[in-house]
Structures are given as C-alpha cells and as structure tokens.
Amino acid sequence: MSKTKTSLAKAAAKPKPTFQPRIVSFCCHYCSYGAADLAGTSKMPYPVNVEIIRVPCSGRVDPLHVLEALREGADGVMVTGCLKDQCHFVTGNYHAEKRMQKLAKDLEDIGLGGRLVFELMSAGMAGKWVETASSFYEHIKQLGPNPLKKMKPEVKCE
Amino acid sequence: MTVRIATMGMAGCSGCHIALLDTGTALLDLLKDVELVYSYPVVDTKNPIPPNIDVALVEGSIRTDHDQEMAKAMRKQAKFLIAFGACSAHGGVNGLANTFNAQEGVEYVYHKTVLMAQKIVPHENVPQVLPADLRLSDVVKVDFVIPGCPPNPDEIAKVITTLLAGETPHLSKKSVCDECPLERLTEIPKQMRRIHEIPEPGTCLLSQGFLCMGPATRAGCNAECTHRSMPCTGCRGPAETVWDQGIAMLDALAAMEEDQVANFNLPRLAATFARYTYASSKLDNLRKGVKKK
Amino acid sequence: MSKPKHIEIEPMTRLEGHAKITLDVTGGKLNQCHFQIIESPRMFERFMEGIPAEDAPQLSERICGICSVAHHLGSVKAVEAAWGVTPPKQAVKLRHLENFGEYIHSHALHQVYLALPDFLTPDTPNVLEVAAKNPKLAKAGIELRMFGQNLIKAVGGRMIHPCTAIPGGMAGPLPEEERDKLAKRAPTALKTAQTIADLYFKLAKQEAAKVGYYLSDSTHYFGLHNKGVHDIYDGTLRFITPEGKKLHDFAPKDYAHYIAEDAMPYTTVKYPFIKELGPEKGNYRVGPLARLNVAQTMASELAQGYHDQLYAMFGGKPVHDPMAYNLARSAELVSVVEQAITLIEDSTLQEDNYRIPVEPRAGEGVGVVEAPRGTLFHNYWTNEDGIITKVNCMIATGQNVRTIEHAIQAKAQELLPELLKPAPESHKIVATKLEPLVRAYDPCISCSVHFIELIQ
C-alpha cells in the first residue's frame, strides 16, 4: 500500500467527531415555557443543547428571529406555544402557526428545509416538551449541521 | 475648485439617469458649478474612470463580473459613493432572478429557446453572469442611498444640492402611508385580492384586501401610485425601522383570516412582497449562503 | 511581423445601454471589428414566470427607463389578448395619449440631449455645451421633453414606470386640472418640435448632420401602419422590401411565422431576421425611418410636411441612409405633439368609461406597440388562474444591430489610422466619427438584451 493510501485508511478508521446540534427554542411564557420548566424541575432528561428563549407569546416570534437564529449558526429552531384555544393573548398562537408554516416552506425552497418545527402544548405538558425537544434533536442530528455554519457572519456571494 | 461628479450604470434600465434628467431645466443650474467628468449618457468620457471624483451616482445592480469590476473601480476613484435607485440600493427587480439558478437562466435565454441551428451562449469577450444578482453594498462600501424605482427627481436634486453645500443629506423616516391621500380604515382585510379587481375609490387599498406595500415602504414619492388608486409595490425599499421589507409585510398579513399567501411559491412570493428588494432580503441572504458557488 | 493589437473602447456614450467597439489589428490592417453589446442579461422572461398576469405591465416596464410606457402598454395588451378582454374606448384613447407622451420625451431626449451636440457643438459634444452656446434652444428642448414626461405622469400616474394600465382599461381618468395644465403648454411644445425639426433639416442640407457619411445598407423595413397611415399604437404589421414593395402584411399574433433569430458569440443581444429569407437577405430595420418608409402617409398635417421634405431630399421611398433616421425622428416628434393636442382637446376624453371588470383565464396573447425605437412584442401564456406560465419578448433595438455593425465595420476600416492613435485621440474619433452612426438609431440597449426566443 502506498504511503498516501495508508494515511487515508488511517484517517477513515478514526472515529469522526460526533455532531452536537445546537437548537434554539422560542417558548411562550404562559404555556410552553412552563412545560419546559416543569420538565426541568421533574428531572426529565432532554438534550442539553436546546437553548430556550422566553417570549411573552408565540405570536411574538417574527420570522426574522428564526432567520437570524439560523444565520448565527443554530442547526434547528423550535417555536412553541399554547394549545389551540388557550393562548393568553387569544389569537397569538393561531397567527404564529400560520407564519411558521409559511416560513418552513420558504426555508425548504432556499435549501434550509426541515430546520423549523412548531408545536403547541399546555404548561403542564412536560412530557410533550421533552418529546418535542428530543425528537427534533435526533432529527437535526440526522439532517446534519446548518450549511450556513461554514460562512462568515455577513454572507456574501463571490 | 469645481466639484467633480460622475454617474455610472450597471445592470439596469437607465430609468434613474432619466430621473436625474427629469430635474428638467433645474439640472442646468444644478450642474452650473460642477464638472461632469464621467457620465455615459451625457458626456463622451471613456474608460478608465477618471480619478478624484467627489460624488458618484451609481445606478443598476451587479449581475456580471464586468459590473463588479466597474463598481470597484468607481469606489476607488470616488470620495462619496451613492447607490442610486432600487437596483443599486437593494438589488431591484433584477433580484427576482435569484429565485432560480443563474446558469440555467442564461442557457434558457440563449440556448433552449433560440430558433436557430446554432445554439450559442455568448462567450467571446462578453461579461460573465455571476451566480446571483447583487446590490452595490454587497461589493463595496456605500456612503449614501437614494432609493426608488426610479428615485424622485426632487429628492435627487435635494441630495445633490445638500452635498454641494457640504452637508449630510437625509431621507424621510416615514412610510408611504404618511403621504397617501386615501382614507385610512381600521379593518384588517379578510382576504387578499388581486389588482385586476376594481377597488372602492377613496379608501385604503390594504384594508380592502389589495396588497399595498405602503406600510413597509419608505416615504418620499408623494404616494404617486395610491393617488391613482393603484397599490404601492414597494419600490423605495424598506421604511426606516423595517428590517426586511418583504418579511415584515408578509408577517403583518398573518392576521388575515383566509391565507392564500400560503400557496405562493418562492418566485411569486418574491415578486409580490420583495419585488425590488429580494436581493437584499434576509431570505435571499441565507439562500446565497446555502447554495454552492 | 508585427504583433496583433486588440483595442477596446468602452463605453459607447450618448446613447442608452452598454456597448463597446473592439478592433483587432495586425500590421496596420483591420482583421476584425465588432460592435459588442455587453449589457448584463437580467432575465425578465424567466422571473416573470409564475406571477399574476395583471402584475406584468408594472413589472415588465422595468425593462427600460426610457421606453417604459411602450413595455407597459405592450404588456397590458398581451394580457388582454390572453384573457379575451376588449378595453373600453376611453381607455384606448388614454393609452394613445400616454404613448404620445413617451414619444415626445424619448424623441426630444435623443434629438436634443444625445445627437444634437454632434452637429451643433462637435468640439465639445454634450448637451451642457449646447446649453452654453444656445441657451434658448436647450431650454426649449428640455421643456418639450418635460411636457412629454408630464403627459405620461398625467395619464400614467408616474413619469417613469407608470402604474395605471391594468387589464380591463386604465386605473383612472385623466384628472381635469392636469388636462388644463397640458392644454396650456401644448402650443409651445408644438412650436419647439417644429423648431427642432427645422434645425435638423437645415443641418442635413449643410451636411453637418453627416447624411451620406456612412454606409447605406439597403434593407427590408418593418413597422405598424393603420391602413397605410403611420401608427404607433395599433394596426397591421408590414414588411417592405429594400425597393419599397410590400412583402407581408400580418396581424401581431402571427409574428412568429415571419421572424426568426440568430445569436452571436461576442454579443449579448440577438439578431432577428425574416425567416423565409435567412439571416443576411432577411435583414431588416425598425424605428422612425422604417416606420416612415412602411407607411404611406403621416397621421397629422405638419408632420406630413416634414415627411414630404424628407422624401423629396432623397428622391422617393424607401430611404436607406442611416442619418435619415434623425430626420424621420424629427417628423415623428412633430406628429406626436400634434396628435397629443388633438386628444387633449377631445371633449369626450373625460368620460367615465375607462375600466371594465375582467376574469383571469388560461390563454395566449400577443401585445404589439411601436416603441420609439421600433416594434415591440410581448407574448404571454397564462394558466386558468391567470398566472403567467411563459413569456416571450421581442424588442426593437436588436432588429437594427446587424445593419449598425456593417456600417461601423466599413467606417472603422476607413478611419483606421486615426483609431490606432493613443487615447484620448482615438476615444474622440470613436465618439465623434463612429458613434454618431449608432446614435442615429437611438438604440435602447438595456431593452434589447431581454428578448428571448421566438416560438416555432
């Protein structure tokens, strides 16, 4: 075997560093943040790389927040809110759902598909929170890192 | 010392240059104490661009390698560089080409559709098309932006006279709604309507369901279009506090009950909400980051 | 053996769009000379796919900032043809008026700002010098052009990229106070148009306008006419032979049967030709001179006078000299002011019926209009929701490019020793001896890099 082939074989044999997805989760104060909090105090395990940003309502989440999170290097974004007729601000979660559905489709069109998920839950549904975070984490692990990560912050086209 | 002014055009329609000429006989006074050293529609100066330019107005977006070279060359020679018009400032309608692959687009135009035996894509000593349409600030530092497709001649004249007086020019911070004569209503439209439908005269077009980009668009045009009962299409780019014209408007419409926008594909979305600003939108910014070079 | 020299002089100036001249010379001999259009392709025909057809007039007009009205009107006609819509008479009158406004602005732009400096101030050829030498003429010329722009704004809502043409008619009437303002300025506008026409004819007789200086290819000619009368909005399309005989009369929707295209490796524009005759024999020209060659009479009286003067000067129809374009354009400038006045004074112009409701539908439509520089086609296909699925545009200037290039090549050969001098002398020679030829056609180069295929 040539020297090059030996070193290539050696490199292939080394275990690759495992990809640790970074997830950003926008959680509404009245419901889904409560669910995440309850999961924490109940010592229910969920992936440590899910970083929570508390917002007053899921309807507060602007598509730009999601885009900026992706641009800054998040591998996946979760937006979570109250159950259908339980939004503290009445229609916030309803508008959020429509926005996020549309945004998810646009992200697919530009090559960032599958990196946005929208879920509804009540403050007591810690299990739902854990399930959402964990399954999304696995999903992103399979999908791979954010393709934008390789670029510098201000993305230019040469 | 006379002030040396230059103008230049890249990928565009020359409308901004005509808007400059639309300052009318005032242009002669404007240029009285000024030396127009390089301006291809008016004077015969050829390349290379002359040095020591005080103010340069650059129209058009960057679509080819030649455009990019010329943009850099002008930045080198000009002390104060102005992105003149929507294409230069935000990418313009040219940016809508970013919704498809550039190479495929060029081949479609010259290859798949030509009726002749020879299917040639022009390649001898002609500029090469870049993978995406870019605005001026994507390639060089820009000192000021005069928005609009085309800009308002009065605004152009005001910017130039302000600069000649040694002061900093300013744009309106308000949105087009501020200049619109139609009666504002507080209703949110139930459904989006297309502009071939006939509106009620005198009342806000957005509240009637027509997509009017007024709320997200910078004032300064005297709301010419809504004065004629045609909705604003957003040609002056985002208003001062709007951080992405298309997405902000899209977001605002999430309150509509029946959402036909959900069925829009990317090209239609871009042409509707970011017609003049798609190349500068966050969505396109991310797309450029994802696509292979 | 001397080294081959490659000379490029760019940009071409005092015309619209990006073009350059390249010369390949060996040992003092001209091997190759190309008139290269290097305008960046913006690909309108691709990005207009998928948009609602009613948005096309306001989007496609961005192809050009000088003849945006031509695209705006050609586009709305194409949509109406695809959807089977006949706009009401008032709307058609308003569109005619808007079209006249565009010709006034565009022809005055050319005749005063772009071409006149070559003939009036050849040592410092620019409009600022013309204004310094003859302030009264320059001011009148500028005001004539602004009359045209104000006319466009009055009907179309904006001077550049108007917004009122919509399938079904126009978004609104001509406001009364605008009409009064225009009526007051109209007599001065007409006087200025005549002054400019008279000046061009005077310069032509003195040879200052370079008549006879360039190669005069005998080509076919193409344009709209309305039963033999010069028409820039609607009518029948006609090809005539270099001898002036009618070759074909056809309706706009049949254009693809008669016209095909050629692409060249060194230029981003494409060269149309008459299909049945092939690229060389089938070469043709469009624009003011072509329109006057094709028509039998002008649509208005004073313009008819200039028309007759032109053909008397050359001994009959058709005229081939490229510099005669400037004379034909002067006649058209007078014509459109006259016709605009007739419409402005039309007592029925303020009537209410300017728009009808429409239903989008699947279809195919061709909209034709004479842009100031020549015949313009917009061809759209729509689906059952009225969304555009395919676009085809054939644009004026490309139809003149082959002829322009022949003449440049011939003149470059003649002027070669001077062209080989270093800059800035060579630049001046190009700008004042070669480019006036290109300018005579008043090319709109940004437009011309947008047309794509012609369907089989």
Describe this entry's structure for a reader.
The complex is a heterotrimer of chains A (158), B (293) and C (456). Chain A has 158 residues and is an alpha/beta fold. Helix content of chain A is 42%, strand content 15%. Chain A has a single domain (19-141), classed as 3-Layer(aba) Sandwich (Rossmann fold), CATH 3.40.50.960. Chain A contains 5 helices and 4 strands. A 4-stranded parallel β-sheet of chain A has the order 2-1-3-4, sandwiched between helices. In chain A, helix 2 crosses helix 5 (126-143). The longest helix of chain A is centred in the middle third of the chain and has 18 residues, at 92-109. Chain B has 2 domains: 3-95 and 126-164, Rossmann fold (3-Layer(aba) Sandwich), CATH 3.40.50; 176-290, no CATH class. Chain B has helices spanning 15-21, 26-30, 65-77, 86-90, 102-112, 153-164, 245-252, 266-273, 282-290, and strands spanning 3-9, 34-38, 53-59, 62-64, 78-84, 129-134, 144-146. A 5-stranded parallel β-sheet of chain B has the order 2-1-3-5-7, with helices on both faces. Chain B is globular and about 60 Å long. With 456 residues, chain C is of the alpha+beta class. Chain C has 2 domains: 5-40 and 401-440, no CATH class; 43-400, Cytochrome-c3 Hydrogenase, chain B. Chain C contains 16 helices and 15 strands. In chain C, helix 4 packs antiparallel against helix 6. The termini of chain C are far apart. The model of chain C is unreliable at 451-456 (pLDDT under 50). Classes of the chains: A alpha/beta (158), B alpha/beta (293), C alpha+beta (456). Chains in contact: A-B, B-C. At the B-C interface, helix 1, helix 5 and helix 8 of B face helix 1, helix 4, helix 5, helix 6 and strand 10 of C.
